[in-house]
Amino acid sequence: MENRVVVTGMGVCAPNGIGLSEFVQSLKNQTSGINFHPELKNLNFGCQIAGKPDIDNIDLNKYFTNVQLKGLNASGIVYGVMAGKDAWEDAGLTVTPEENPDWDSGVIFGTGILGVDKFRESIYKVDEGNVRRLGSTSVVQTMASGISAYLGGMLGCGNLVTTNSSACTTGTEAILMGYERIKLKKATKMLVGSCSDSGPYVWGGFDAMRILPRKHNENPEAASRPMSATATGFVPGSGAGALVLESLDSALERRATIYGEIIGGAINSGGQRAGGTMTAPNNEAVVRCLKSALEDSKIKAEQVDTINGHLTATAKDPAEIKNWSKALGRKGIGFPYVNSFKGMFGHCLAAAGSIECVGTLLQFSENQIFGNVNCEDIHPEINKIVDESRIPRSTLNIAPKIIAKASFGFGDVNACVIFKTYDFE
Questions:
Q1: Going by C-beta distance under 8 Å and a sequence separation of 6 or more, which residues neighbour residue 225?
Q2: In this structure, CATH architecture of domain 264-420
Q3: What range(s) does the Ketosynthase family 3 (KS3) domain occupy (predicted)?
Q4: What are phi and psi of 307, to 5 degrees?
Q5: 324 forms bridges with which residues in the sheet?
């Protein structure tokens, strides 16, 4: 028998909320975390707004020792450690003593570009001939697995400790990787999630591609417009989300809080064929991924009552809705409720999937479906497929039972996870 897998802890460091309490209130009240950044204006960015977690008043000594903080210049690692340690604590877990690793607990924490500011700092020192002044932290803060290494050591995890990287699919992929490991009884608990650095060196490439909005620099809160006819591109964001996955038997034995159950999912690629490219999805692959997630979950399409989409506020939003409709065989008033949280904090790149999965699961504990912002003018192609009542503009007092969450990324990669409320038996 395979293990059933549940979520027993969560943490988040998002542009519109740090910690579960602040984050859930922001989602319920539709509070934006998108702001104007003078630094981007000074650097001649077309898009001068972004979603960035406000950690200025956070006591980082709660998460790092003074030694760890010395020379720390990697925002993604800071966000990831904050979210990861908060999730561990939220699950009611303690840190393993130094002399005894926890062989049954592991970490899969993904990222895209990590430690870019530290890397820039290091390059200047090397170019100036000051190699000896790099210090001992330049490698661990710039290697992709730096975030999982930090968390694995802080928590004393002795099972698989690794980092995945699949562009904007990263966070959702990490969750499915951890789920599979527990399901197959290779681990009892896995801390999973993802993080993304902040700043112009991460966001600059997207600005150069002209896929970021340029008309809302003076009105940041209106800029991110998923499913809207007036969407002009995604607002870049950053942060981290983290979840503690655990076998159901272990969770029940500990009498842990259970946020929800993962009942299945799927990951695939379109191979950059049949319309799929480095930056655009192969629609057939997306439909296959969504259908495979349903099959893996052993549920019927009509059982999905809510979708949390990738929906980035680009020209691809209508295509995504069309793909959901094809995969589920549902449209009009029969389409599930659908939402995108990116209207409130932008597209957090590698961190997007994990942050949005935290928000997705919070809908179970709140017995609500959170609304969408900035889509008063729904795209006409979406209107042809979905009845407007299925795209809530404000929080609905409706308790979801099964939510499908999907993420799609550069490289033509796709991931979909299916969450279900846990019914205590």
A1: 231, 232, 313, 343, 374, 375
A2: 3-Layer(aba) Sandwich (3.40)
A3: 2-421
A4: -120, 130
A5: none
Annotate 92-135 with DSSP letters as a single string. Answer: T--PPPTTS-BTTEEEEEEESS--HHHHHHHHHHHHTT-GGGS-
| Mean predicted confidence (pLDDT) in 101-119 | 94
The DSSP annotation for 328-351 comes to HT--BTTSPEEE-THHHH-B-GGG
Alpha carbons 115 and 197: distance in angstroms, whole number: 7
Using CA atoms, how far apart are residues 13 and 233, in angstroms rounded to an integer?
23
The CATH 3.40.47.10 domain(s) of the chain lie at 5-254, 264-420
86: Cβ contacts below 8 Å, ≥ 6 apart:
10, 11, 12, 19, 20, 242
Element (DSSP H or E) covering residue 51 = strand 49-51
How many angstroms separate the Cα of 406 from the Cα of each of 118, 300, 311, 421?
32, 17, 9, 17
Phi, psi at 163, each rounded to 5°: -125, 135
pLDDT (0 to 100) of residue 326 = 98
pTM above 0.70, yes or no: yes
Question: Alpha helix locations (H) across 170-213?
Answer: 170-183, 200-208
Residue type, 27: L
Q: Contact, 37 vs 50, CB < 8 A?
A: yes
**Which residue, among 209, 199, 327, has the nearest Cα to 268 in the 3D structure?**
327
Structure tokens belonging to residue 113: 């570009």
Name the residue among 166, 167, 113 with its Cα closest to residue 143: 113
**Under 8 Å between Cβ of 58 and 82:** yes
Tell me the backbone φ, ψ of residue 241, rounded to 5 degrees. Answer: -130, 150
Pairing mode of beta strands 189-196, 161-162: unpaired
What is the phi/psi pair of residue 151, to 5°? Answer: -65, -40
What 3-state DSSP class applies to 358? helix
Band (301; pLDDT cuts 50, 70, 90): very high
Residue 140 to residue 137: CA distance in whole angstroms = 6
Bridge partners of 173?
A: none
pLDDT in tens, 141-176: 889 999 999 999 999 999 999 999 999 999 999 999
Residue 191 has pLDDT above 80, yes or no: yes
What kind of fold does domain 5-254 have according to CATH?
A: Peroxisomal Thiolase; Chain A, domain 1 (3.40.47)
The maximal CA–CA distance of the chain, rounded, in angstroms, is: 66
Q: Give the C-alpha separation, 274 to 281, whole Å.
A: 9
Name the E strands within 74-215. Answer: 105-111, 161-162, 189-196
At residue 290, φ and ψ (nearest 5 deg) are -65, -45
Q: How far apart are the first and last CA of the chain?
A: 18
